Automatic annotation (TrEMBL):
InterPro entries: DAP_epimerase_AS, DAP_epimerase_DapF
Pathway participation: Amino-acid biosynthesis; L-lysine biosynthesis via DAP pathway; DL-2,6-diaminopimelate from LL-2,6-diaminopimelate: step 1/1
Keyword Amino-acid biosynthesis appears in the UniProt entry: yes
Substrates-to-products reaction catalysed: (2S,6S)-2,6-diaminopimelate = meso-2,6-diaminopimelate
Organism name: Nicotiana tabacum
Lineage: Eukaryota, Viridiplantae, Streptophyta, Embryophyta, Tracheophyta
GO molecular function: diaminopimelate epimerase activity
Protein name: diaminopimelate epimerase
Amino acid sequence: MAIAAAITVPLTTPSRRFLASASANPIRFSSPLTAQPKYLKIAAGRGTQCPNFRICAASSMRIEAPEKASPDSFLDRKESGILHFVKYHGLGNDFILVDNRDTTEPKVSPDQAVQLCDRNFGIGADGVIFAMPGVNGTDYTMRIFNSDGSEPEMCGNGIRCLAKFIAELENSRGKRSFTIHTGAGLIVPEIQEDGKVRVDMGEPILKASDVPTKLPPNKDQSVVKARLDVDGSEWNVTCVSMGNPHCVTFGTSQSQDLHVDELNLADIGPKFEHHVMFPARTNTEFVQVFSPTHLKMHVWERGAGATLACGTGACAVVVAAVLEGRAARRCTVDLPGGPLDIEWSEKDNHIYMTGPAEVVFYGSVPL
C-alpha cells in the first residue's frame, strides 16, 4: 500500500510517538479540540510505496491551522472502507475506541486489531474497544480485542475510557452513569464532576474453579497465599477474578517483600501468564506494600504484556491484600501510569475503582 498520512498534534500537548498505518487514502489524526489553536502538521508524500501499516518518511513539515470540525461532526462521518476512531488512555493504558452502536458485530476483526495496535507499524494501543448496542436492558455493550487479537472479558481502564467516549457520543456533560454489558457481567461507570470515572466493578470472584485456577483451595474455596512454582522459584500467590483472572503476588517464599521496580517483567510475566495452573491464562500483579492504604503494583496483562496500568488488576490487588491481612479496604494503588483509588466495600461486597480517562487524538484509517 502507498501511504499519505497527516498527523495533527497540538504544540501544547506532551510529546508522544503516534504512528499511522498505510494506504493510498490519507490517515488523519487530530488532537482533542479543546487544545490551543496552533498545531504541528506532518504530511507524508503520496507516491511512496509501503507495506501494510508501515510508515514512510515525511516529505514536508509545516504549521497549519486545524480543519474546522467538532468531535461530534468527526464521529458522525460515515465513509465506506474508512474507520473513524478516538484514541483514549487511562493512566497510559491506551485504547482505540470505535463507535459500533449500529451493529452487534465488531467493525474491526481480531487480525485487524493486531495491526492497528502495533506500536511500530500501526496506530499503537493496548487494545481496540467497541461501543455496541446494549442487551437485556443495558445502555451499551462493551467488547474489546487485545493487542494480540484475543478477547478478554473486561478491562478496568478500558471501561473508564469507554464511559468518556460514550459521553462524547451522546454529547452529555457533567455527572452521568451508564449500564454496560460486558463479558464479566454488568458494569456501571459514573463520570464525576471532576471528570474522573468511578466504576462499580461488582463483586470479586474467589472460588478457585471460577477464577479459574487449578491450584487447590486453601481457604474455604479460595486460593490465598498459596505456593506456586514458577521456573524454579516458589511464589506466594492469591487468585482473584474480576470477571477476568488475576494472580496476585507480594513475593516469594524466600523474599516476602517485593521491590517491583527491580523485576524483569518481560522475563517472569509470560511464565505466570501461561502457567499450567491457569487454564484460561492469567493476568499477574506484582505488589509492593508501602502502608495499609498505599500499594504499588506492576502488571503483566494476559494478551497485552507489560502495560502502564490495569484497572481490574488494581482491584484484584486490594482484594488480595485484604485477604492476606496486608491492607485496608480502601487503598491508593500506584501503577506505572499513575494512581487509582480502589475500595472494597463491606456494605455490598462490591469493588469501586476511581481514576482518569483522557482523549489522546481523533483519527481515521482505511480498512
